[in-house]
Design a protein that fits this description.
There is one protein chain. The chain is of the alpha/beta class and 313 residues long. The chain has two domains: 140 residues, Medium-chain alcohol dehydrogenases, catalytic domain (Quinone Oxidoreductase, Chain A, domain 1, Alpha-Beta Complex); 142 residues, Rossmann fold. Helices cover 33% and strands 26% of the residues. It contains ten helices and 16 strands. The strands form three sheets. Strands 3, 5, 6, 7, 8, 15 and 16 form a seven-stranded mixed β-sheet that branches. The termini are close together. The relative contact order is 0.15.
Length: 313
């Protein structure tokens, strides 16, 4: 079959690899892939420097997608069984990692709502316990995940939704999706950013942090008593200094996030909520369809664009 094959650490190449054979994986579900996303975790693990990086090559790249099972069921799927991945004509996954999708939802959209959608919604619900009226700040919320998080926060009843980032055009797009304020962090000190966040948000109750680095303590310092920060990504820095008195004075909490920490039931619940919003027409996701044969070119572009790259076999 045709696939995006990782022969050595770096960028996968379009080529041939043996297809998964029926019956070889007793607990596996064979899937004809219709759409597969390129995620940051795909790029990082392909470099061979992540704890999830493969130790044996070649493998097929890709952690998620959407397709059709042998019994003609439309599903979102994640975690293909190695050496198979989602970026191929077919793959195999464990039965617990498929979720049915309705006929009304495109395969590409369904694929986009997995990794990105869960990273947008689940920090707001299971981790921070967002309540109607809570003021939300999204640090680094101008990309695919952040744009979904803006909409999710609004749909969950947030009071204000403030987006902090560096790309001014991307921040403007966040306003169009329902953000109440957008702040460019370029050139601002931690103290200046704290003032800007406090004024824009009206005081912060929930912080979803996709960046870490200096924006994190700045947002916490603008927090209301009991402010909750959920840590999702670290694009602005892997370490940060948090004053103990700041945490104690506000009763602040800082929690690390990965979807698996909340368990498969919560993951399925979040995914179904996203699908429901898509079906109702109240949630949108930006994506670009790319032929699987162009995976090498799309791989590099996926780190630069503000929409999801979706490979189509």
């Amino acid at each position: 079959m045709k696939a995006a094959v990782l022969h050595s650490y770096g960028t996968p190449e379009f080529g041939d690899i043996a297809a998964p054979a029926p019956g070889v994986y007793p607990d596996g579900v064979l899937i004809e892939v219709r759409a597969a996303t390129i995620n940051s975790i795909d790029r990082v693990t392909a470099l061979g420097k992540h704890y999830l990086s493969p130790t044996t090559l070649p493998i097929v790249a890709g952690i998620e997608g959407a397709g059709v099972t042998a019994d003609n069921q439309r599903v979102y799927f994640g975690r293909p069984i190695s050496p198979f991945g989602s970026m191929a004509e077919s793959t195999v996954v464990s039965g617990g990692f498929t979720i049915p999708i309705p006929d009304s939802v495109d395969f590409a959209v369904a694929a986009c709502l997995g990794n990105s959608g869960m990273a947008a919604l689940m920090p707001l619900t299971g981790t921070t316990g967002l309540k109607p009226g809570d003021n939300v700040v999204l640090l680094g919320g101008s990309g695919v995940v952040g744009r979904l998080a803006i909409q999710a926060a609004r749909l969950l009843g947030a009071g204000t939704v403030t987006v902090v980032g560096r790309d001014e055009s991307a921040l403007e797009a966040g306003l169009e999706l329902g953000a109440s304020a957008a702040i460019s962090a370029d050139g601002l000190s931690v103290e200046e950013l704290t003032i800007a966040i406090g004024e824009a948000s009206g005081g912060v109750d929930v912080i979803v942090d996709y960046t870490w680095g200096d924006p994190a303590p700045a947002a916490l310092a603008a927090g209301n008593p009991g402010v909750r920060l959920v840590q999702v990504g670290d694009r602005a820095g892997a370490t940060v200094a948090l004053p103990a008195q700041l945490l104690r004075s506000l009763g602040a909490s800082v929690t690390g996030f990965m979807p698996v920490h909340q368990g498969p039931v919560a993951m399925v619940r979040a995914y179904r909520q996203l699908i429901e919003w898509i079906d109702r027409g109240v949630l949108i996701v930006g994506y670009e369809l790319v032929p699987l044969a162009d995976v090498a070119a799309a791989w590099g572009r996926s780190a630069l664009v503000r929409h999801k790259m979706v490979l189509v076999p």
